[in-house]
Write the structure tokens for this entry.
Amino acid sequence: MRAITIGIDMGGTKTLAIALSDDGNLLASQQIETDRFAEAEKALGDTAQLVRDTIDSCGFRQIPVKGVGIGLAGLITREGIFTDSIIFPRWFSVDAGPILSKTLDLPVIVDNDANMAGMGEWWARRDQSQSIETLLCLTLGTGVGGAIITHGRLSRGPDGLAGELGHITVDLNGRKCACGSKGCLNAYVSGTAIGERYKERLLTIGQDNSSVSEEDVISGLMVSKLASSGDALAREIIQETAVYLGAGLASLANVFNPDVIALTGSVSNLGEQLLGTARSELAQRAWPLSAKRVRVECSRLGTSVGAIGAAVSALKASV
């Protein structure tokens, strides 16, 4: 081990930092809750302290830290400027890289959190890189993001906004999405949307049909637990979520003809409860050759995927 890089995954619920050695070993991790309604200056100050704590927890004071990578849940230009986000509503035109770099006295690279997760999934499959031409990553968390990786390189688009896979349309006149459009995949399969859809249905049928009340704050995780405990409405919502996810996956398979679609984030933890139906929908809706080729898999790196991808990106940038 000759050097360390730090990777940060700053999502709508938590901010995770990991330390990765240049030979690929995970050395340490630290996590804090994300205050997604804070101003950028406050949130980045908290993140800088998290980086310091993570470095200190490694215990390798003689090993140099080569750089920091951070994935942010929002739109990031090719120049690294955070422009807008449905997750961080008080962040506008934030140049987070130089702010953190000055505070930490380290090189910092910034990218969309889903892009970092995509790089993590590619890195986890680096032993198969010769057989994987295109990998898509779909992050199913507070919101839905995505990344497109071909031959190990991210597809960014001229404005750096390629890969917003959560905003493909799955229902032309459907639910309003936080992005302002209607019928986006994000409006049906994100953790936020799963909770909202359950509560909307509960208000229609009455709380006698559920073990929770109309006043409860209902999250996607809660709906998942209710479904596992036999709640009929929760099971119905999860089944519908799987159908919408499968329709979205079919569109992605038809457009990109990928080898792998990797699913990350808290919603993907539903596993086969979600994926069985989603894969079936994909098979029915996509071109047969595309459906046969693509492997829909849950993350190989679990909740650390975005932070590991950020650390890998920082390592590549330092070479």
